[in-house]
Amino acid sequence: MRGWMRKFRSLILFGALTLILSGCGVDNISALKPEGYGSDLIFDLMMISIAIMLFVFVIVMAIYTFVLIRYRQKKGQEDFIPKQTEGNKALEIIWTVIPIILLLVLAVPTVQATFDLADKSGQTDEDALTIEVTGNQYWWHFNYAGQEISTSQDLYIPTGERVYLDMKSSDVIHSFWVPSIAGKMDTNPGENVNTMYLEAYEEGVYWGQCAELCGPSHSLMDFKVIAVSPEKFDQWKEDMQNIDPEAQPETASAQEGQELFQNNCMSCHAIGSAAAGVGPNLSNFGNRTMIAGILDPTKENLVDWITNPDEIKPGNQMPADLVSEEEASKIADYLLQLDHSEVTPESAGGNSNEGNNE
Amino acid sequence: MSTAVAQNRGLGAAIWDYLTTVDHKKIAHLYLASGGFFFLIGGLEAMIIRIQLMKPGNDFISAGLYNEMITMHGTTMIFLAAMPIIFALMNAVVPLQIGARDVAFPFLNSLGFWLFLFGGIILNVSWFTGAPDAGWTNYAPLSTTSPGHGVDYYVMGLQISGAGTLIGGINFLVTIVNMRAPGMTFMRMPLFTWTVFVTSTLILFAFPALTVGLFLMMFDRMFGSAFFDIALGGNAVIWEHLFWIFGHPEVYILILPAFGAFSEIFSTFSKKRLFGYSAMVFATVLIGFLGFMVWAHHMFTVGLGPIANSIFAVATMAIAVPTGIKIFNWMFTMWGGSIRMTTSMLWSVAFIPTFTIGGMTGVMLAAAAADYQYHDTYFVVAHFHYVIVGGLVFGIFAALHYWWPKMFGRVLSEKLGKWTFWLFFIGFHLTFFIQHFLGLMGMPRRYWTFQDGQGLNTGNLISTAGAFLMAIGTIIFLINVIYVAVKGKQASGDPWDGRTLEWSIPSPPPHYNFKQTPLVRGLDPLWVEKSEGKKGMTPAEPLGDIHMPNPSILPFMMSLGLFIAGFGFIYQVDNKVWLALVFIGMGITFGSMLTRSLKDDIGHHIHKEDLEKGAGE
Q1: Handedness of CA B125, B130, B136, B137 (dihedral sign)
Q2: Predicted confidence band at A27 (pLDDT cuts at 50, 70, 90)?
Q3: How far are the Cα atoms of A144, A191, A278, A280, B434 from residue A275, in angstroms, in the given order?
Q4: Does the beta carbon of A21 lie under 8 angstroms from any beta carbon of chain B?
Q5: CA B36-B38-B40 angle, 5° bins
Q6: Roughly what angle, to the nearest 10 degrees, separates helices B106-129 and B63-75?
Q7: 38-97 in A: which are within 8 Å (CB) of B?
Q8: Starting at the edge strand that comes first in sequence, how are the strands of the sheet with A184-187 ordered?
Q9: Where do the Cytochrome oxidase subunit II copper A binding domain residues begin and end (chain A) (predicted)?
Q10: Residue B388 pLDDT level (bands cut at 50, 70, 90)
Q11: Most Cβ neighbours (<10 Å): which of A59, A284, B257, B571?
Q12: Is the pTM of this model over 0.90?
C-alpha cells in the first residue's frame, strides 16, 4: 500500500511538472511543447531529470533551512563552544550511495535515448526520405537526395514518418535546431557528415534556428520546417520536380525581372533542382514563409533586402547595389510569383507566427 | 648581502616597490587590483550585452560589435578576472596557512603575475583595433577565417597570460609540497590549501593543452599552416577537443579554491571543525580527477556518435557524487554549531542553494540526449552562470570579506557588505533563473537580437533588470573598499576567532610572515592552541636570522619583452617591417633571462636583533 502511495505521489509530481513547464513559450518553437518524436523523447528525459533533481533539492533545502534557523548564534551565547565533531561514517556513506543510485536511474534512460536518437537503421529503407542539409553563412540549403529537389530556408517534410538528414557545412560550424520537433545537431565543414532524423506528429510550421555562433548574423539564420500530410507532401514533391526555370511570368514587370535576375543573380542563385550555389536556391520563393528567414514576405521588404542586404543581415555574402531600386522591384515581382506548388505553409496550418503567443 | 631594506616612502618609490616586488603578499595585491579592474571591464561588457537584449529587435549595438562583446566578456571574466583573483587569494593565504615564509620560487611568482597582466593588456588593446569575435571558445574555422586581427589578439594575449598561469600553478604545487611548517602533514592542511594544491595540479595538466591549441591557431593565422583548414586537409573539430581538454578542467581550476574558501568560512563562523574533513579532501581530489575525463560533454552535438556521448554522459554525472558529498558536509559543519552571520558567511550560506541549482542543471545537461535541446541555448548560459557566479564569484566575495583584514589590515564594513550581498544576490537570481526557461523556450545563446512574438520579451527584460541590480551591488562593494581604506580601523591579527595559521600573526603580516616557524600539532592548529588556553602558536625553532629574496625588475622586463613581441607577431602578417618588434621584444626577454642567469642574487637576511626590535612589521 505504501509503495503504491509513493508511486502515485511521484506520478502527481511528474504530472504537475509537465503542466507547469508546458505552459512556457510559443507552440512552434518551444522545447517544452514537443510536437515530434525527438523532442517528445527528450521532453520525457528532461522531466525524469527534473523530478530527480527537485527531489534532491527539496532534501537539501530542508536540512539547510533547519540548520540555519536552529543553529544561529543566540544573544548571550557568544562564548558557547560547540562540540568539535569529526564526521560521521554512516551519514557520509548514505549521501554517497543515494546520489549514485539516483544517477543510475537517470543514466539508463539517458543512454537509451541517446542511442534511439542516433538510430539510422530506417535510412536504408527504400522509401525513407533523406535530405542533405547544408549550413551556410547565413542560410540553409536542403537537397532531397534522389528526388531532384533543391530548396533553401523552408524544409517540407511529411508528417508521421522519419525523415533523415545528412548534414554538413559549407563554411564554418553551424547547428541545426528545430526545438519543437527534434534536438539539434552541428553541421561541420569537411567530410564530417552528421546525421539525425525528424519526425513531426502534426501538420504545422516549426521554427528552426542556428545554434552555433557563426558570425555577425548568427541570430538571423532562421529557417522553417513545414510538416504537411503525406498526400500533400507527394503533391509538393511532384510540383517541385516539375519546375521549369525558364517559364515565362505573366506580367511584363515580372518578365523584365526574370531577365534581370538571369543576368545579375544566377551566378550565385538557382531556380529548379540545381544544387546549392554561393547563395540560396530560390525555387518556390513566392511560397516562402519569410524573406531571408526573418522578414515578412512583402514586396517592399524584398526590394529592401535586394538593395541593402548587409543592413538586414550583417556580414552576409550578397553584394549591395548590384541592381538599382527600380530593377530590384522588377526582380521582386519575378521572385514573388515563383509559387510552384499549391502546397504552402498556409496549407500546413498557416504561418503560425501569429496567435500562439504565451 | 644587505640587511632589511630601508622603507622609502613617496609614490614613485611605492610604484617601484610594486614593480619589483617578489613578496607573495604584495603580488596578491597586484593580482587583486588587476583582476578587479578586468572584472569591472567584463562587467561593463555584460551590461552592454544585457542592454542590447532588453527588447526584441534592439539595435543598441551592431551585430559585429555584439560578437566582440560576448567574446571579450567570456574571455575577460574567465582568464583576466576569475583566474587572477583566485591567484590573489592563493598568494595572500596559502603560504600563511602552511606556516611558510614565502613561496618556493618568489621570482617566478612575480614573473607569473607580469605575464598574466601583459597578456591581459594585449587582449584589451584589441578594443582599439578590432576585438576578437569568434566567442570565448574561438571555434575554428570561424576563428581562423575571422577578418582583421581580433583573433590574433586573443591568441597572443591568452598565450602570454596562460604561460603566467602555468608558472603560478607550478610554483604553488612546489610550495605546498615542500614548504609546510613542521607537523603540518597533508591531512592537517587547511582545506583551502588542499583545493589550491589540486587546482595547481589541474593547471599543470590543463594549460599545456591550451598552449598547444593556441600555437596551432597562431601558426594557422600568422604563418600559413593549415591545422584547422579543411580545404588543405586540416580538421576543425580538433580545436574543439583541444579547447575543451583545457576548458573543462578550467572550470574546476576556478571552482575548487572557492570550495576551499567556503570550507574555511563555514568552519570559522560555525565555530566547528570541518565535518568529514577526510571525505572533503577525497572529494576534492576526485572532482579534480574526473574534471579531466569529461571534456566531450561540451561536444554532444558535434556528432561524436552515441557511444562516445553515452560514456561522457555517465562520466559527467559521476561528478555530482563528490560535489554532493561536499554540500552535505558543509551543511553538517553548521549543524550543531554556533553560526555567526557575517557578510562572508552570508555569501557562503547563499552559495549552497545557488550552487545546488547549478549542479542540478549540470546533471540535466549531462544527459546527452537531453543536451540536444539544451546545448548552446540560454539554458546553458543560465547553468554556467549559476556555477561560476553562484560558486566562484560568491566565493570570491566571501573570501575577500574574510581575508581582507589579513591582506590589508582593515576589516571591510559589514553594513555596506550586506548591501552588496543582497543587491547582488537578488539581481543574480533575477538575471539568470529566468534564462533557464528562455533557453527551453527556444532562445539560442550568443544571439545578437531576438524576434518579437516568440514569447521571449518578458524574460529578457527581467534578466536585464537583474543585471542592473548586480552592477549596483558591485559598485557598493567598490565604495566599501575605498571607504575602509580611508576610514577603516587597524584590524587585529585574529578578527574572526580563526582556526588556521594565518590568524596567528599580525594583520597585515610582516614581510617575513612568521618570526619563528610554528609547530603544527593538529588540524586547525591555531584552534588547537587556543583550546589549550594559549594565545599563539608554539614555535618550532629558536629565533634566528631570516633569509629573504631580493626584489627584481627582471620579471617585469621579461614580460614587457613578450608584450612588445606579441604586437610584432600580430602585425608582421600585414608588413614584414613589424618583425622588428619581434626581435626587439624577444631581445628584451632573452636579455633579461641572461642577466638573471649571470648575476648572482642570493637575497638578504633579516637579522635576529632586528626581529627582536620588531623591524619590518
Answers
A1: negative
A2: confident
A3: 10, 18, 10, 9, 42
A4: yes
A5: 70
A6: 170
A7: 38-39, 41-42, 45-46, 49-50, 52-53, 56-57, 60-61, 63-64, 67-68, 71-73, 77, 80-88, 91-92, 95-96
A8: A154-158, A222-228, A204-210, A174-177, A184-187
A9: 126-239
A10: very high
A11: B257
A12: yes
Left (φ > 0), alpha (ψ -120 to 50) or beta: where does B470 sit? alpha
Is residue B334 within 8 angstroms of chain A, CB to CB? Answer: yes
Structure letter (DSSP) for residue A205: E
Q: Give me B116's grid cell.
A: 598574466
> For cell 576585438, what's the residue?
B131
The alpha carbon of B486 is separated from its chain's Cα centroid by a whole number of angstroms, namely 27
Question: How many helices (H) and strands (E) are present in chain A, helices listed first?
Answer: 8, 10
The residues in A 222-281 lying below 8 A from B, measured between CB atoms, are 222
The one-letter code for the residue type at B264 is: E
Q: Are B338 and A61 a contacting pair at CB < 8 A?
A: no
User: Which of B 252-311 lie inside 8 A of A, CB atoms?
Assistant: 270-273, 275-279, 301-303, 305-306, 309-310
Higher pLDDT, residue B131 or A321:
B131
Cell of A152: 533553401
User: ipTM greater than 0.90, yes or no?
Assistant: yes
Contact B584, B142 (CB under 8 A): no
B160/B190 Cα distance (integer angstroms): 32
Query: Helices B277-291 & B320-334, crossing angle to 10 degrees?
Result: 150
C-alpha to C-alpha distance for A108 and B206, rounded to whole angstroms = 31
The three three-digit cell numbers of residue B89, written as one number: 587569494
Is residue A8 over pLDDT 90?
Answer: no
User: What average pLDDT does range B394-418 have in this prediction?
Assistant: 96
Contact between residue A129 and residue A155 where contact means Cβ atoms under 8 Å apart: no
Helix (H, G, I), strand (E, B) or coil at B168: helix
